[in-house]
Amino acid sequence: MEKTYTEIELIKYSKKDIIQLFLNQQELLAKQSEQLEQMNKNINLLIEATKIAKQQKFGRSSEKMEWEGQMELCFNEAEVTIAEKNVIEPEFEEVCPKPYKRKKAKGKRLPDEIYKRLQFHPATFEVEEHHVAVYVGKDNQTIVKAERPTDLLRNSIVTPSLEAGILNSKYINAVPLYRLEQEFARNDINISRQVMANWTIQCAERYFSLLYDRLHEELHRCHVSQADETPVLVSKDGRAAGSKSYMWVYRTGKIYHDPPIILYDYQKTRKADHPREFLKGYKGIIVADGYEVYHKLEKENPDIRIAGCWSHSRRRFANVVKALGKEAAKDTLAYAALKQIAIIYKIDNGLLDLKPEERVAQRQLLVKPQVEAFFAWIKEHRNEVPAQSETGKGFTYCLNQEKYLKTFLENGYVPLDNNACESSIRGFCIGKRNWHMIDTIEGAKASAIIYSIAETAKANNLKPYQYFKYLLEEIPKHMDDKNTSFLEMLLPWSKDLPTECRKADQNR
Fold first, then answer.
1. Do 338 and 392 meet the contact criterion of CB atoms below 8 Å apart?
2. Which end of the chain has fewer beta carbons closer than 10 Å to its terminal beta carbon, N or C?
3. Which range has highest mean pLDDT (24-38, 96-110, 168-182, 364-378)?
4. Are the CB atoms for 246 and 231 separated by under 8 Å?
5. What is the mean pLDDT of residues 54-75?
6. Is 302 within 8 Å of 281 (Cβ atoms)?
7. CA dihedral of residues 473, 478, 479, 482 (deg, nearest 10)
8. Within its chain, how far is the Cα of 186 from the centroid?
9. Between these two residues, 242 and 110, which has the higher pLDDT value?
10. Start and end of every Transposase TnpC homeodomain domain (predicted)?
11. Can you say how many angstroms the Cα of residue 190 is from the centroid of all Cα atoms in its chain?
């Protein structure tokens, strides 16, 4: 504790000593003030972190905020600012038209009243019995059999419709195999989950892998792609229990790319080797988050450019605003950052209907000034918040990603964010909680192939069950073909697909 002095004690000191004592006290007070200021900063950081953690655990996952100009900023994973639209209020008669009164003719039969109701029939199982003619040769010793049609997994009881039903349940509806096993048993069908897993892995390796490779080739032709990855646990991959593996996802760019392609790629690690191999020979722009692996690809390959994700750039600011609440956050830098990013979204969303060449021109004219102003504003205010705070981390992320966040300004095909790719991986993230097959590397690779076909089918407005069934009927017929040209008629956008594979609105 610092010593205190009485008036009598101070009289004994010389003028020089008293000045020195004063300077020492002044220096001590300055240090204490600095310590107190740092303690306050640490307390504020702790309070902020606590509020954000509480909001993320117990709060709403999405939230809307309004400000001047009647803009709306949506705090959800889609993170898209909705453009204003003029809505014309309808007249009452348009909503509730007056009923037409039919004049009844005396003694004349009127048309029958017709109404429809929808019935549901639970899953039914039919046993197919196939007969193969067997003959005895002229020597009365040789056995001759008639030619047998090509089957799915020869010598197995599985049929295209049964396997398609299993795939639809697991990869579309996220029903784990053990529950499917129970459902079958309730219908007096005893098929173990192990048998279903074996069928699925074999179908993926033998048949679906051919279509997957063809889609991979097609993806390489698109000059704008998107990439993301998510962790997954595979219990038997030769490593310690709990080791993380990764499912990478790649898709065609969201803007102007038709038809869409979505491909999964299972890998044991998150290293750059994997996207480097998957994208070998690719030339174009890849939209991704701030993971350094993607930036490394750009440095290594002059044919590849990386575009950043504006959705990621705003998340830390959104965390602060959601944790504090709209009213309390209005005077914060995080709120101001969100407003500026929302303006960028709003202007760019208004250009969606333009052709790529027109869109890039308008981006340079209208969006670029907003982007430049945003980064200038960050550089001006970055020292006003602690670097360790959520807002400070948001500023640092944006500045580190500035080069990549500006890429979209130079190309009308590049989307503003990577949300389309994250949406494509969402079905996998939901399904992985129910996995009972991804116990091995083979199972993980099979799931990557099947998820790829399932998500691509959905993106192309196909009925997944019917598409799976058709593929399992057709691909086995061509296993002895010398080339894979038959795959052209099986692609999700092929006009040769039967009508039942397409959703009703695609058949009109």
1. no
2. N
3. 364-378
4. yes
5. 47
6. no
7. -170
8. 35
9. 110
10. 48-112
11. 36
- Full-model pTM: 0.75
| 133, 220, 474, 490, 502 from 208: Cα distances, Å | 32, 19, 11, 11, 19
For 180-208, the pLDDT digits (tens) are 999 999 988 899 989 999 999 999 999 99
Asked if pLDDT for residue 92 goes beyond 60, the answer is: no
For residue 89, the 8-state DSSP code is: P
Q: Are 432 and 438 in contact (CB under 8 A)?
A: yes
CA 374, chain centre distance (Å)? 27
How far is 306 from 289, CA to CA, in rounded Å?
9
Smallest Cα–Cα separation from 348: which of 334, 373, 368? 368
* Residues 287 and 253 sit within 8 Å (Cβ to Cβ): yes
What is the average pLDDT value for the chain, to the nearest integer? 82
* Residue 238 · residue 269 · CB < 8 Å: no
Please count the other Cβ atoms lying within 10 Å of the Cβ belonging to residue 21: 14
474: left (phi over 0), alpha (psi -120 to 50) or beta: alpha
The distance in angstroms from the start CA to the end CA of the chain is 87
Is 90 exceeded by the pLDDT of residue 487? yes
